[in-house]
Specification:
alpha+beta
Length: 748
């Protein structure tokens, strides 16, 4: 997760703030991209890196707090998955490569476009293992390495998400290829400590007042999650004890500012970490790196970053701690398969905060309802944008790490999915199944949808189309009417903020009907606009609260009472039959104020005349039929005029019917005899092709033509006939169904 310097001075002062102030900064800093990134990175990646699978990474480097100078070596062991003649890895061009060994043999190389190219002496075949050891040094860019001094802490720390691992070590930045295991060795001055991934294997005492910290993780890890944080830290330990692994515990290791008062300032919040580990283990499945640790290492990166097993933190706000811990499941254990799917990381980590506020309210100063309302407000601060990152924005880090879309709308969509399932048992089972099925791997939005559907038994296509791939949010308008003392009719109208992308939001909606006799909550399933719901209700309503528990991102529109509901046209269709009949059918509901229906017809779709009417039945739902015979027109257009009791009216859409009434095949010719022009009038019962053939008295064809004609009367004019000699001619007209007319004509 990326972070931002919302207010540099304010966020840097968090080291001496009280817990509440730290929370406020975390709310600002832990959800959006750091301002060091340009809106769109310049990024090119060699596809040949897909020809190998990284099995092991070892970094053996030197680093000093306050400096971005990195030196040392990186060992990559990979397995060839496609014939490979050049080994390629990424490293920014400002980092200097000293030498390279491939399979322990010095090899040639060249750097270009932030890549290292190493031609191989022989093409490596599939299944072969290759060892690549790169010695390098340089001053890394601030894009991926932070260094500084603040409040007594001098530090250097890395942050590689999304494309910044190459800033400080040679790497393959492809999400689908997790590193199977990793060693990270860091040499520094002996006054410092080094935080990193996995378990600390040992600290080696070296000459010149140096020490080497050796960290190791045996869990698969994505390329952007290896990290180092080096500083003059103090260590603070506590332990989490998830019920599912009792009596064992999980080490929580904190590297923080080494001043006499700092620990007492943040200890209360740090001590919440074990509670969070235990609760998330209940909700998502056991902490995925239980055999190693979880922890925090401080550095002013502007917020937090979920480095696997040890998050890097600028502060220790309660929500920020919960967010980065949530990432250990959502982002680290299961990683988004592409940056399109970043909401699987950030949306779920943000929802992890919500769940901790809900499940452990005593640890927070805000309520779950207030937090969710804040998320909704953020999402609706603009009217468009999808949770899913479009392909065009895959290198736009401001879009990838959009706080409004990837984080907050992602989290509110997860909350909405929980509501849609109507079962916390199924919802949390979905989360656990997903974690289990894609453990130590990557997953797509489609993968998560499949797990959610198979676990819940629900078809979630509409849900994902609307809330993940779609844009905007709905506004609900409710009109309620009491037709009698025992029931209530609810007309639900919906408008949307991005109609060109998502014209309608289907799904469950909760309504609270308020009354002095007691409130009533009802659940409706909105499947179409202006839908009417009839509920049993015998109280006197005073109003309706739309989505009272904020399950759905929406705006509440108008709530109107005491009016007559407008008629609802459910369907209007028509059919034409071979006996020349035109049959109209329409279905209505809620026609409490309708007087009648007038049926109108037109031959051109513009000028309509009334041909009949039907008196309204005024039942809850009504079916109507109307038939008329038409053996003249090829096409007829019908509409219905809906007349209200007060004389006002509206029109339905138009139904266009093609007459299926049969017409006889017939041909007429004029003038007879003819001279320069011959007019041919052809009547067809169905549109098709005809062939006209004119022959002279000795049987020679003097004119032939094929025409595509429509049903009904067609007029054809043959001009310039004066070129023909006077005399007798035979003309035949044949259609594609074998109908034929033959006639003798005289030309003067």
């Amino acid at each position: 997760m990326k972070v931002v310097f919302i207010s540099i001075l304010f966020c840097f002062q968090v080291f001496v703030m009280n817990a509440q102030e730290i929370d406020n900064c975390a709310q600002k800093c832990n959800r959006v991209i750091t301002d060091f990134s340009t809106s769109r990175v310049s990024y090119y990646q060699e596809t040949s890196m897909n020809k190998y699978d990284v099995k092991y990474l070892k970094l053996d480097i030197s680093a000093q707090p306050g400096s971005r100078v990195i030196s040392g070596n990186a060992l990559t062991i990979a397995q060839i998955v496609s014939p490979l003649d050049t080994f390629i890895t990424e490293l920014r061009s400002n980092m200097i490569v000293d030498s390279i060994k491939i399979n322990n043999v010095i090899t040639g190389f060249y750097q270009s476009s932030d890549h290292i190219f190493m031609p191989l002496s022989t093409t490596q075949t599939v299944g072969t293992s290759i060892s690549v050891l790169i010695f390098y040094h340089g001053t890394s860019n601030s894009l991926g390495v932070y260094a500084g001094t603040n409040s007594g802490l001098t530090y250097v720390a890395t942050l590689s998400e999304s494309y910044q691992a190459r800033e400080w070590f040679p790497c393959k930045q492809i999400l689908s290829d997790k590193i199977d295991s990793t060693d990270i060795w860091v040499t520094t001055s002996n006054v410092n400590k080094v935080g990193s991934n996995g378990l600390l294997q040992g600290v080696d005492v070296l000459p010149a007042s140096k020490v080497r910290y050796r960290w190791k993780t045996n869990y698969p890890m994505n390329y952007y999650l290896p990290s180092i944080a080096v500083g003059n830290y103090q260590e603070y330990l506590n332990y989490a004890k998830p019920a599912s692994m009792a009596p064992d515990s999980i080490l929580i290791q904190h590297y923080i500012v080494n001043t006499p008062t700092y620990l007492s300032t943040v200890k209360t919040n740090l001590d919440k970490t074990p509670r969070f580990v235990e609760k998330m283990s209940e909700l998502f499945g056991l902490y995925p790196f239980k055999n190693e640790k979880y922890g925090h290492a401080m550095a002013n990166i502007g917020g937090g970053m979920e480095h696997q097993t040890m998050s890097t933190m600028a502060s220790f706000g309660t929500s920020l701690i919960a967010h980065e811990l949530g990432h250990q499941w959502w982002g680290d254990h299961v990683t988004c398969a592409s940056w399109n799917d970043i909401w699987l990381n950030e949306g779920f980590a943000t929802y992890s905060e919500q769940l901790m506020i809900e499940k452990l309210p005593a640890l927070f100063t805000t309520s779950a309802a207030t937090n969710m309302l804040s998320l909704h407000t953020s999402v609706m601060s603009a009217t468009n944008g999808s949770v899913y990152v479009p392909d065009a924005s895959l290198f736009d880090e401001n879009r990838i790490f959009s706080s409004r879309l990837s984080y907050n709308k992602g989290a509110t969509t997860v909350h909405n999915l929980r509501f849609e399932m109507q079962s916390d048992t199924l919802f949390f089972k979905t989360l656990k199944n997903f974690q289990e099925q894609y453990q130590n791997n990557v997953a797509t939005t489609s993968n998560f949808k499949t797990v959610a559907e198979s676990t819940s038994g629900k078809n979630l296509t509409d849900f994902f189309t609307q809330w993940i791939y779609g844009e905007g949010y709905p506004t609900y308008n409710i009109t309620y009417y009491r037709p009698n003392g025992d029931s209530m009719l609810l007309l639900v109208n919906e408008t949307v903020s991005a109609p060109s992308v998502t014209p309608f939001f289907k799904g469950l909606l909760e309504l609270k009907i308020t009354s002095l006799q007691g409130d009533t909550t009802v659940l409706i399933n909105v499947t179409g606009n202006n839908q009417v719901f009839k509920i049993v209700y015998n109280k006197t309503p005073t109003g309706i609260v739309i989505d009272p528990n904020n399950w759905i991102v929406n705006k509440s529109g108008t709530v109107t009472s005491g009016v007559v509901l407008p008629v609802r046209l459910i369907s209007f269709t028509g059919t034409a039959t071979a006996d020349c009949m035109m049959n109209l059918n329409w279905k209505t509901a809620d026609e409490f104020n309708v007087s009648k229906y007038e049926i109108e017809v037109s031959s051109n779709g513009m000028s309509f005349v009334k041909i009949g009417e039907q008196i309204a039945l005024r039942n809850t739902t009504n079916d109507y039929q109307f038939s008329v015979q038409d053996n003249i027109h090829s096409y007829s257009y019908f509409r219905i005029k809906i007349v209200e009791s007060d004389g006002s009216y509206t029109y339905t859409t138009t139904v266009n019917l093609e007459t299926k009434c049969p017409l006889d095949f017939g041909v007429e010719f004029s003038p007879v005899p003819f001279q320069n022009n011959l007019n041919i009038r052809v009547q067809l019962g169905i549109s098709n092709e005809i062939i006209l053939v004119l022959t002279n008295s000795v049987g020679q064809i003097v004119k032939k033509e094929k025409r595509s004609l429509v049903r009904g009367i067609n007029n054809i004019n043959w001009s310039n006939m004066n070129q023909l000699a006077a005399g007798t001619y035979i003309i035949s007209v044949t259609d594609q169904f074998g109908n034929k007319t033959v006639k003798k004509l005289v030309k003067n």
